[in-house]
Amino acid sequence: MLRNEKLVFALPKGRILKEVMPLVRHAGIEPEPAFDDESARQLRFTTNFPELDIIRVRAFDVATFVAFGAAHMGVAGNDVLLEFDYSEIYSPLDLGVASCRLSVAEPADLRDEDDPSTWSSVRVATKYPNLASKHFAARGVQAECIKLNGAMELATQLGLSRRIVDLISSGDTLRANGLVEVERICDITSRLCINRAAWKTRPEEVGGWINKFGEAVDAFAA
Fold it and tell me: pLDDT per position in the chain (222 positions), as tens?
């Protein structure tokens, strides 16, 4: 990473982006107008800081961009950070946005006859095979995890698996598809994540942004 290289800040598309932008703006960052234009196709944006650009990528890809140094900083859910567990990422600050939970769910008609504490083996469809495997292994449950990237609820309807492991917020999507939450794995929020090499080589710049985001979090919590 060259000293005169622009800092690149990776932000996730979707729900997290909407919730984190007030913090981003409170930290003093104002993207170029195209950033708020829903018809704009570009993925990289300048900001009011000449030395800082923003990229907008899929939520699941933020950690990869940061870990491999394509972005110096980013915002990622700790579901993604825990799933990939990149040693190259330092996540110093919980931003307290996009709160949800990672849970096991199954069809409602199984609930009365099924007790998760009695499971010895389980088959789940999930976007989080590493997290799910670790969770079940800690309980002594043998788990077969089928990796899906979306439409998790269909897995139980079409016989791919009887259960899923997925993020749950309001639970509306589960109910709409005849599923119920039966076990919570962990609570999820979004965090500021930093590439460790950037933190080491550009401590003043990166540390300054960590402080600004910390101040923004404190301001919104007050």
Answer: 444 589 999 999 999 999 999 999 999 999 999 999 888 889 999 999 999 999 999 999 999 999 999 999 999 999 999 999 999 999 999 999 999 999 999 999 887 777 888 899 999 999 999 999 999 999 999 999 999 998 999 999 999 999 999 999 999 999 999 999 999 999 999 999 999 999 999 999 999 999 999 999 999 987
With helix as H, strand as E and coil as C, how does 8-51 read? Answer: EEEEECCHHHHHHHHHHHHCCCCECHHHHCCCCCCCEEEECCCC
* β-pairing verdict for 190-195 and 142-147: unpaired
Whole-angstrom distance, CA of residue 90 vs CA of residue 207: 12
Q: Is the CB of residue 176 less than 8 Å from the CB of residue 136?
A: no
Domains in the chain with CATH codes: 7-98+189-221 (3.40.190.10), 100-187 (3.40.190.10)
CB neighbour list of residue 43: distance below 8 Å, 6 or more residues apart: 55, 56, 57
